[in-house]
Amino acid sequence: MSVRNLNLLHPRDQIIMIINRIYKKGLTTTSGGNISIMDESGDMWVTPSGVDKGSLKPGDIMCVKADGEIIGPHKPSMEYPFHKAIYVERPDLKSVVHAHPPALVAFSIVRQIPNTNVIPQVKSVCGPIGYAKYHIPGSNQLGNSISEQFKNGFDSVIMENHGAVVGGKNVIKAYERFETLEFACRTLINSNIIGEPKFLTEEQIYSFNNQVPTDYPKMSNVVYTSDEKGIRHEIKDMVRRACDQGLMMSTYGTISVRWKGNDFLITPTDATRWDIQESDIVQVKDGKCEADKVPSRSTWLHQKIYEMHPEINAIILTQPEYLMAYGVTHKKLDVRTIPESWIFLQDMANVPFGSHFAQNNLLPELISKDNPGVIIENDSVLMTGNNLLQAFDRLEVAEFSAKSLVMGTSLGSFEPMSDNEIDELRKTFC
């Protein structure tokens, strides 16, 4: 949903939309967590206390008026005082999200702050992370501890032995920050299972943010043919499927599909992935894009791959959490786990951070029939296919393989398929 459309949605409906997403993604329990929105009149809308988060209705959302009057059929969340304290210290924030997702809780109970320099997008979305000392839930002391961190400029705060709380300029931005922070924590935990995470320097993050082209040549005339419209629908559906499957997040993920020749359609930048519409998709023709739209920051890379590889008709660039454990540790993913993994992938090369920077031809030259996917260290996973379904299937297989390897680490040493077994697969399927 765009921010413009969000502004026309009542705060209680905004809260229901986000709490449903949080609950369905397994980021909160039936009784845990709370969301609030501060409206333009100074009234705070907040989730109720003791009501099933999986079945909340708009009428359940409580309103705490600016004068302290409470309106609604329930009690407001017992922790609404710390929401109020945050808004007092940070009037620029209009929404607060708090819950107890497993990875964030893991960091809170070992009393550590996740390093957001693990992936550039995590750093840009979450920023530095604050830390609030433990106090009784609902107490003034807890409110003071948390609000002090927000007063110091943090937008994301780990709550000692409790969970996390984040703020945003609207409820979508708060949710995106919350989801991204949990993703970062899961990536770091999985990385520690298979190795040791490597972090980016401030200089590397600065270089990434400043090398991305933003001024794309614009078309003067755009033609929307029937087949072009069909591709838009295909991309929209696959983005939502990727979000549902945990292969893409609200804040990151790019899909493109070749249209004709080297022209293609691609997802936009800075758009909430789970609500992308056909009209958001950007047409790129003869190196130019639609006016009034900003295509993915990786558009140049997609263009180069399509120019160099006529057999490739779809590209996905995203951040699945188990594959990213390999990207963050710089360890190679060995796809010789089960026959399907090798048949679909054959190889998954790692390339250094920076290989995806504009005008670097390493990735387009590396991609091939035998190497359809690449792990970009500390950034993302790139997968290709002769159509979008094949690219998505390969991505799923790669993520399942990575997940099995991470899980298998606790059981013993990985025993890959033998060279003879791989030769038999090669003779049979290649």
Note down, in words, how this protein is organized.
Keywords: Lyase, Metal-binding. Residues 13-189, 233-406 form the Class II aldolase/adducin N-terminal domain. The strands form 2 sheets. The protein has an 8-stranded mixed β-sheet with strand order 4-3-2-1-5-8-7-6, sandwiched between helices. It has an 8-stranded mixed β-sheet with strand order 12-11-10-9-13-16-15-14, with helices on both faces. Strand 6 (129-132), helix 6 (140-151) and strand 7 form a beta-alpha-beta unit. The chain has 2 domains: 3-194, Class II aldolase/adducin N-terminal domain (L-fuculose-1-phosphate Aldolase, 3-Layer(aba) Sandwich), CATH 3.40.225; 216-429, L-fuculose-1-phosphate Aldolase, CATH 3.40.225.10. The model has no long low-confidence stretch (mean pLDDT 93). The radius of gyration is 23 Å and the shape is globular. With 430 residues, it is of the alpha+beta class. The chain has helices at 3-6, 11-24, 80-89, 102-109, 120-126, 140-151, 171-194, 202-211, 226-244, 299-308, 321-329, 339-345, 362-366, 388-408, 419-429; strands at 34-38, 44-46, 62-64, 70-71, 95-99, 129-132, 156-159, 163-168, 254-260, 263-266, 282-285, 288-289, 314-318, 348-351, 373-376, 380-385. The protein is 40% helix and 16% strand. It contains 15 helices and 16 strands.
Major β-sheet profile: 8 strands, mixed
The end-to-end span amounts to 44 Å
In the sheet with the most strands, the strands line up as 4-3-2-1-5-8-7-6
Helix content: 25-40%
- CATH C-level class of the largest domain is Alpha Beta
Morphology call: globular
The overall average pLDDT, rounded, is: 93
Give unreliable regions as ranges: none
What structural class should be given to the helix and strand makeup? alpha+beta
Total DSSP helices: 15
| Assembly annotation | single chain
CATH topology of the largest domain: L-fuculose-1-phosphate Aldolase
| Portion in strands | 15-25%
The CATH architecture of the largest domain can be given as 3-Layer(aba) Sandwich
CATH homologous superfamily descriptor of the largest domain: Class II aldolase/adducin N-terminal domain
Work out the number of β strands.
Answer: 16
Total domains: 2
The whole-angstrom Rg is 23 Å
